[in-house]
Specification:
The protein is about 45% helix and about 25% strand. By secondary structure, it is of the alpha+beta class. The protein has four domains: about 5-125, PAS domain (Beta-Lactamase, 2-Layer Sandwich); about 145-255, PAS domain (Beta-Lactamase, 2-Layer Sandwich), CATH 3.30.450.20; about 265-425, Alpha-Beta Plaits, CATH 3.30.70; about 440-685, Alpha-Beta Barrel (TIM Barrel). Strand 23 (about 590-595), helix 24 (about 600-605) and strand 24 form a beta-alpha-beta unit. It is extended and about 120 Å long. The two termini are about 70 Å apart. It comes from Ureibacillus chungkukjangi. InterPro entries: Biofilm_reg_signaling, EAL_dom, EAL_sf, GGDEF_dom, Nucleotide_cyclase, PAC, PAS, PAS-assoc_C.
Length: about 700
């Protein structure tokens, strides 16, 4: 037996990890059936929070028709210690029904059953599929059982009809007597477009083959119908065909249903445009035609900018109205030159055919961008939307239809990064950028997990006489990728969500280091760390910061966090609440890169922020009259709002003097020191600053 079985703490950690990280929902109930613990997956699937679960009994969320059975099962497991597996339906917090497969086992401690634990598998989709299959089966059986089949028998040359059932009249519109009087009647009813094919197949009967055909007729009333015909030859003892027996079924409704299903499978329900599946078919067909005609194809990957705001603000019903209007506009603009498809959400792909030059594709893209901005009226208000487009060209960029769409998507991403409301033509370095982005993401995930290759450097903040604080700046030197600029990997961390654990690592590491500094130095400079907007938006951001300070025993009065102006674009009331919590804890707040974002002066006056940091772009161009006016304004505004001011990026004595004359008293930049490793901080503190 492995030694770990002797270590109860280790075993508990393993079991806890298995429980919490299990991809399936897990729970534990006490003897009364009340939830004791649940894992995150259980919360995700039901919509209830941990706090809400702690007040619920299992029976509270079970669908009414299952409760009696579930109570009996619970008692059985609790009393007899048996393991039970069963299917049950529970109610999501929103009221939605969730079908589950549950395995329940007793919780045994010291030989006593204290409760019941369960692991759950979501079978909602499986049950829905089973029900849908059953419904479809019943529908098909009903259709089949109600089809009237025409049964007939004639001689080989169709000169005499021996037998014809009454159902033939319902199908063809002609009576039994009419068929017997004119055995060739059925041939004249075949649709002209199908007649040659059907009659040509009759020769197979002479060879002894059974033929099964589907073709159209025009009945006695002028109706076009699809029929399924099954004809088999009957032989005499000498091997000669003496008779033909056949069955004919009206499959018109079946054909209509099939065509409808095909339409649904290949058509976007909202806009009635071809969906992605149909587009891929059309693209393959267009590639073949383009090769034959030696022409090009253009793929325009079209995406509305900030469409999520429409859905979030006006609701999905109005969002759907906007999408339908956009679809109509795209079709009007593209016309007969191509195919417009909707591939998901607010994304459309336009396939331009018979393209003679790339310039024509660019012209069409620009036209789309120009026309899409026309206002859309919803109720009494009008809304203007912009769009970004990525373009790829066949065969210039690739001969692979799938890659053609991928490359257009990559070009779309480039257009989004370039400020949106524009188009970009695919370039090979777009693919390289995607690959590098993925490499960085994987390497960063590993670096955070293993706590390796990430370091902090610290740049002093001075009041021209002494160092008053240090800003912690993240550095990453990956073993494979080498040194990476924060400007490259921080956006990737933001997008992927890794900024959350990364930001916590920075705060924890810096606080731990500066505690050591305070123990071994007479100086007490404050510590400033950057907190991303995404990190600050987290509901538990403030509590997590407090927890880190408690764990590192760091004095909150010595910590400042730096936020960017983008926080003001979110829920300002909620932001103010968090900032007040920080201030109540003694943590100071700096507004970083001030002047480059979206600050609203109406909010700036009420935000509990201690200090504004002038962005270095203004400082480096301070000799420009316009930039100098901005810096002067920021300093005067900070003074009037009784907030501190720090100038970033001070590299020259002339800049320093200019800033002093404008009233700025705190500075940060290479004129004083570049960011240095923690080990070099004591040397900086022990030197007098003469700049």
């Amino acid at each position: 037996m492995h030694p770990i079985y002797e270590d109860s703490d280790a075993l508990f950690s393993i079991y806890k990890s298995l429980f919490e990280s299990n991809p399936d929902p897990c729970y534990a109930l006490d003897q009364s059936g009340k939830f004791i613990i649940i894992n995150k997956r259980a919360m995700d699937i039901t919509g209830y929070t941990h706090e809400e679960f702690s007040k619920l009994y299992f029976s509270d969320i079970v669908a009414e028709e299952y409760r009696e059975h579930i109570n009996g099962t619970f008692i059985d497991v609790l009393k007899n210690g048996t393991r039970k597996s069963f299917e049950v339906a529970v109610n999501h917090k929103t009221g939605k029904r969730i079908e589950l497969y549950v395995t329940s086992v007793p919780i045994v401690v010291g030989g006593e059953i204290l409760g019941v634990a369960g692991i759950v598998r979501d079978i909602t989709e499986k049950i829905q599929i089973q029900r849908e299959l059953e419904r479809t089966k019943l529908e098909l059986e009903s259709v089949f059982n109600n089809i009237d089949v025409c049964v007939w028998s004639s001689d080989f040359d169709y000169k005499q009809v021996f037998q014809v059932s009454s159902a033939c009249e319902k199908i063809y519109g002609y009576s039994q007597e009419e068929f017997k009087k004119n055995p060739q009647l059925w041939k004249g009813l075949i649709h002209p477009e199908d007649r040659d094919q059907v009659l040509a197949m009759q020769s197979k009967l002479a060879e002894g083959h059974t033929i099964n055909l589907e073709y159209r007729i025009i009945d006695a009333y002028g109706n076009v119908k699809w029929l399924s015909s099954y004809t088999t030859p009957i032989f005499d003892e000498s091997g000669q065909v003496i008779r033909l027996n056949g069955m004919v079924a009206d499959i018109q409704q079946q054909r209509v249903t099939e065509e409808k299903l095909v339409f649904m499978a290949f058509t976007d329900e909202l806009t009635q445009l071809p969906n992605r599946r149909r587009l891929e078919q059309l693209l393959k067909e267009s590639v073949l035609k383009a090769d034959e005609a030696s022409t090009k194809l253009g793929i325009l990957f079209f995406d509305l900018d900030q469409f999520k705001w429409i859905n979030d603000t006006l609701g999905h019903t109005n969002g759907d109205k906007v999408l339908k209007k956009i679809a109509e506009r795209l079709q009007d603009i593209v016309g007969e030159e191509g195919i417009v498809s909707r591939v998901g959400g607010d994304e459309f792909i336009i396939l331009l055919q018979d393209v003679s030059s790339i310039e024509l594709v660019e012209d069409k893209a620009q036209t789309l961008i120009d026309e899409i901005v026309q206002p859309i009226i919803l109720g009494e208000r009008s809304y203007v939307l912009t769009a970004s487009i990525g373009i790829s060209i066949y065969p210039d960029d690739t001969r692979d239809p799938e890659k053609l769409i991928t490359f257009a998507d990559q070009a779309l991403n480039a257009a989004k990064k370039d400020g949106k409301n524009t188009y970009k033509i695919y370039q090979t370095d777009f693919s390289e950028d995607i690959v590098r982005k993925l490499d960085i993401l994987q390497a960063l995930r590993q670096a955070i997990k293993n706590n390796e290759s990430l370091t902090l450097h610290y740049q002093p903040i001075v009041d021209d006489k002494k160092i008053v604080g240090f800003e912690a700046l993240l550095r990453w030197n990956d073993p494979t990728l080498g040194f990476l600029s924060p400007a490259e990997f921080i956006p990737i961390a933001e997008e992927s969500g890794l900024i959350i654990p990364l930001g916590e690592w920075v705060v924890r590491t810096a606080c731990t280091a500066f505690n050591e500094l305070y123990k071994n130095s007479e100086y007490m400079p404050y510590l400033s760390v950057n907190v991303s907007t995404k990190q600050f938006e987290q509901d538990h951001c403030v509590s997590k910061l407090k927890k880190i300070l408690e764990e590192t025993n760091f004095n909150p009065e010595n910590l400042k966090i730096e936020l960017t102006e983008s926080i003001m674009m979110k829920d300002v009331e909620k932001i103010i609440e968090k900032l007040n919590q920080l201030r109540a804890s003694g943590i100071g707040v700096f507004l970083d890169d001030f002047g480059t974002g979206y600050s609203s002066l109406s909010y700036l006056g009420v935000l509990p922020i201690n200090t504004l940091k002038i962005d270095q772009s203004f400082v480096q161009n301070i000799n420009d009259s316009a930039q100098e006016a901005i810096v002067r304004t920021i300093i005067l505004m900070a003074e009037s709002l009784e907030k501190g001011i720090i100038a970033e990026g001070v590299e020259e004595v002339g800049q320093l003097e200019y800033l002093k004359n404008l009233g700025c008293q705190h500075f940060q930049g290479y004129l004083y020191s570049k960011p240095v490793p923690f080990e070099e901080i004591p040397n900086l503190l022990n030197k007098e600053i003469h700049k």
